[in-house]
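Q: Hi! First time asking for a complex rather than a single chain. Here are the components, and I think there are two in total. Is that enough to go on?
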Amino acid sequence: MTVTTPPSNSAAPVESSSPREWMLENLFNTWYNTILTLVISGLLFWTFASLIIWARTEAKWSVIPANLPLFFVGRFPSDQYWRLWIVLTLICLLAGLTWGILARNVPVLFRQNIVIIISFVCMMMTLVPVGIPYRILLIGMVLLVVASAWGGKQLSKTQPDLTKWLPFSWFICLIISVWLIGGGLGLESVSTNLWGGLMLTLLMSIISILLCFPIGVMLALGRQSSLPIIRFLSIAYIEVIRGLPLITILFMGQVLVPLFLPEGMRPDRILRAIVGLTMFSSAYLAENVRGGLQAIPRGQIEAAKALGLNTPLTLGLVVLPQALKISIPSIVGQFISLFQDTTLLAIVGLVELLGISRSILANPKFLGRYSEVYLFIGILYWLFCYLMSQASRKLEQQLNTERN
Amino acid sequence: MTTNSTPKVPLWRDSRFWKIAFQLIILIAVLSLFILLGTNLTRNLQQTGGTVFNFDFLNSTAGFGIGESLIPYEATDDYSRVLLAGLLNSLRVMVLGIILTTILGVLAGVLYFSNNWLLRKITVFYVEIVRNTPLLLQLLFWYGLFLKLPAIATTAKLFNAIYLNKRGVFLPWPSGNAVWFWLSVLLIAAIASVVIWRWRIKIMVEQGKSGKPQLILLWIMGILAGLIIIFALGWQRPIPAENGRTIEGGLRMTIEFTALLVGLVVYTGAYIAEIVRSGIQSVPKGQWEAARSLGLKPGLVMRLVVFPQALRVIIPPLNSQYLNLAKNSSLAIAVAYPDIYSVANTTFNQSGRVVEVMLIIMATYLSINLLISLTMNGLNKAVQLRER
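A: Yes, that's all I need. Here is the structure of the assembled complex.
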């Protein structure tokens, strides 16, 4: 019998992570890696240096502060801005409440990095190039979010029953926002030609995704159905719409919709755009929900039948809740693509964020300032989409741990 | 013996009746909707132009010029020719775009696993930035960048062979009479080399031979092919003309085409990189470890063991990305490249025949869609697990 003795009784080697050793291991470990690292860092340094030099010397940034209202709300009449501030207040209130209620199980809501992020955002708000009262209002909005987050957490502890009214209150908030933005019923009405900028982008994406939801779910159910005509019609609609580029559908919406309606009905351009976007995303949403529907085991439907439920009840009580929960990540991904696809409306002439940037660039005073303007709205779009995709990833993690 | 006769179920509670009735109701609803829309359409068309639904306008003169075209086209040609030119332009972007974006996407996806920290981080930045910005904004950015190229008089040169200026990107290109002959020789050589390679593997595995003669044969074929490519194809360099206003020779890619191609390739490449990354991550780690324990180097592990298994997971989403690229090529209208959609737009603006032109566009895109899907489905079948 061989006895193996350990080579020595010394302690295990200490993993030192000094910067020099980290660099040797990760950046310079082989000869081709060394060359690659040097070449790439040289290129990166040159790019960043020229970018910063351009930003400080050649770029004329005055185009952004001069047109901030246009970027954010289009040609909305400036004496009615108080309505938009009310909309922003409502959204901040509800957003804070949602954050507080969703984080009800987190022991400390305002951890160190959250406090750092909030103070960073407040500092950014002080640097925004608008008048001082507006900067104070913006900081007030951030503090409102913080306060309502704390309030939401308290609410979820003391009265948990009220928290199920949250989705309904978001819906009411949307209706009130559309009333405040559009006018009518006591408020001075603002024509839809004057809506524009980031406000129009957000409004159109949110309304389209809400409208396409029931249609998409019905198409997905129709595609799975055993009734041949329904299945054929659903497949025909989904495959035709998914095979066409969005720009053709939007053009068809703008140009063909008046032709198909009885004479005299000339729907609004924004309404036609929303119809186009809804038709397009309902086909894609149907495919996402179909993925969720296919993940439900057949045993669920058989058990529901054994309990005596007919088809509509089975769908509503057993199948759809599970299917929608599984497909929530892809639905959020669909919303992010829809948000990016609203830029195509600039080609059909609507003045959402990209469209209003192009009309700002057509102003002789700001001719040729493409880079500054496109960089600004590029950063805006990137910020929104990145935050939404991070939120979607967190949501996916939360749902996965709940299921297991 | 008494037989229990089941009580007759009333019609309104019979599910078979409801299945048929429901379908009939939906069918009647959809048909009546179509009839209603159709009558509205014909009435509106008759009121505005007094025109009937037909395709005769395709034979009338187009009257507008387009920026570039693969087939000779004048403004006096008719609409069918301009639509054909647009279609060929679209196909040019789609085919080149699919090839280039696959290369870029696979490269970025594989680099995600490199052992160089800088390369990994750059890949992550590339994917995150490109996926979260709208495609139209990226196309306008690339177009603006290419518009800043210098005029012909002060053209930028790369290696004295590639010229970049406002009129386009000029690359050396084979020209001459014998090009097609040598290209078919190269194609035959490629097919022959694949056949010889498989034969070599077969005799090495089944008969234990060394495979050296075949390897030498393949090397000779490779060197000959290289010589043909360098010398026989007749590369023609672009040369600035005497008056300094044009550049002759070579292949000219207009900046609109280049901007559209680069924008589409970069955008779709980020999505393909994510797909490739998730495909490679789906291969169990045990495969990596077993391959390393067999003595294979990391490059060979990726090529022989991991990537073929990852292909099964990669190909279905790759299909939808190729379809997205084909559909996003319609954004050429924003960078002034005359693809089928942009040409059709001008056609129906000028001729007023909206419905017919829309039908032509729909048919074109749906058939391209079908073609790409059929090819990818064939590829998908080829990489499936062959189970007993």
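A: Chain A touches chain B through 50 residues (CB under 8 Å). Let me know if you'd like any chain examined more closely.
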